[in-house]
C-alpha cells in the first residue's frame, strides 16, 4: 500500500467526488419532480391514464441502469431529428445524458416509494381533512403529501444511497466522477488496488454523510412521532 | 424491429448474462449464509468481521468493486506468482471477476436477509429441539436451516432481480454478455437506439421470467403451511 501515491492523486479524486455529488443531487431533485406526479397518477389518476405511470415504472425498474444510460447517450443520436433539434447542445453532452438517465431511473423507484407512502397515510387523517371540507389538490397539498414525504424518508434514504452507487456508471460515458477519475489515474500509474480502494473510501464517506443528514432530517420532521417514545 | 442478423449474437450474450447471474447468486447465498452465521458466532472477532463486511461492502458501488477485483486481482496474483519465480502476465477472466465481485457484493446484502430469516424462526422450536437432545449443530441443520430458506426466499428474490440487472456491468471489463454483444452490433450497424432498445426488452423479459419463477418457488416452499383465515 502506497500512501504517498494516494495523497498525490487525491486532488483528482476529490474533483471526481464533486462531480459525483452534482450527479446525485441534481438527479435526486429531478427524480422527485418526476416521482410526485407519477405516484399521484398511479394512485388517484383516471383509470385510462394509469397504464402510463405503470409502464414507465415497469420499464425503468426492469432494465439495467447501464442500458438506460446508453439508450440516452448513444441511442438518441440515431435520430437525425434529435441531432438537428435545439435540444442537441444538451443531449449531445455526456453530463446531461447521465443526469437525464439517472433522473428517469430514480424517478421510477422514488415514485413506487411515494406510492407506498401515500397509501400508508392513516385513513383517519384523510377523513378528518375531508370532513373539514378539503378535497382534491388542497387535500394532497396540505395533508397527504406532507405526511407521505415523512413516511417515505427512510426508504428514500436507501434509494439515494443506491443512486450514489449507481452514479459510478457515469464513468462509462466518459464522465470524470469518482470512479472515472480513479480509472484515469490508474491508466497512468497502473496501481488499481490503492486507487480503487481510495475511491471506495470516498464513496463510503459520501454515503455516511447522506445517511447522517437524512437521519437528522427524519428526527426533525418526525419529531412529533418520536416525542411520545422519549 | 430489424436486428440485421445480430439476433443470434444477442441471444448468446443473454445466455452468458443468465449464467453469470446464477453463478454470482450462488456465491452470494453461500457467503451470506457464512456471514450470517459468523454474525451469530460466540467468537467476538467473527461477529465484528461479519458486521464490517455487511456495512462496508454495501456502501461501495458495484462497478468500482468489479474494477477493483478485475484489475486488482491480476496485480496481486502477479506479485504472488513472482515470489515463486513466475514472471508472466496473469489475468482473471472477466466472467470469474464478475462472479467474484457481484457474489461478494450481494453476499453482504444476503447476510442481512439470512440473519433476519434465522431470527424469524420461533425460538420455541429450537428449545424443543434442545429438549429432544439435539445439540447446536444438529438443531441448526435439522430445524433452522430448512426454514431459513422459506423465510429468506422473498427478499432473496428481490436481490436476484437487482443482481440480474447489475450483471450488465461485466461488459465494462469485456465479457461477452448481452450488453457487450449489443455494443458490438451497434458498432457494426450504427443503430444504437434499436439495439440498446432490443437489449432493454430482453432484460425486461428476463425480469418478468424471474419474477414468475420466484412466485412459483414461493408457492412451493410454503406448501403445507397453515394460513390465517381471511
UniProtKB/TrEMBL annotation, chain A:
PROSITE patterns registered for this protein in UniProt: ABC_TM1
Keywords carried by this UniProt record: Cell inner membrane, Cell membrane, Membrane, Transmembrane, Transmembrane helix, Transport
GO BP term, pick one: amino acid transport
Matching Pfam families: BPD_transp_1
Bilayer topology annotation: Multi-pass membrane protein
GO CC, one annotated term: ATP-binding cassette (ABC) transporter complex
Cellular compartment(s): Cell inner membrane; Cell membrane
Parts of the chain that traverse the membrane: 20-44, 56-74, 86-105, 168-189, 195-217
Superkingdom of the organism of origin: Bacteria
Protein family per UniProt: Belongs to the binding-protein-dependent transport system permease family. HisMQ subfamily.
Name this polypeptide is given: Histidine/lysine/arginine/ornithine transporter subunit membrane component of ABC superfamily
Lineage of the species this protein comes from: Bacteria, Pseudomonadati, Pseudomonadota, Betaproteobacteria, Burkholderiales
From TrEMBL, chain B:
Membrane topology note: Multi-pass membrane protein
Gene Ontology terms: cellular component: ATP-binding cassette (ABC) transporter complex
Keyword tags: Cell inner membrane, Cell membrane, Membrane, Transmembrane, Transmembrane helix, Transport
CDD domains on file: TM_PBP2 (cd06261)
Domain of life: Bacteria
GO MF term list: transmembrane transporter activity
Ranges for domain ABC transmembrane type-1: 14-214
Pfam families: BPD_transp_1 (PF00528)
Localization annotation: Cell inner membrane; Cell membrane
Cross-referenced SUPFAM superfamilies: MetI-like
PANTHER family: ARGININE ABC TRANSPORTER PERMEASE PROTEIN ARTQ, CATIONIC AMINO ACID TRANSPORTER, MEMBRANE COMPONENT
Family listed: Belongs to the binding-protein-dependent transport system permease family. HisMQ subfamily.
NCBIfam families in alphabetical order: HEQRo_perm_3TM
Descriptive protein name: Nopaline transport system permease protein NocQ
Native source species: Thiomonas delicata
Gene name tied to this protein: nocQ
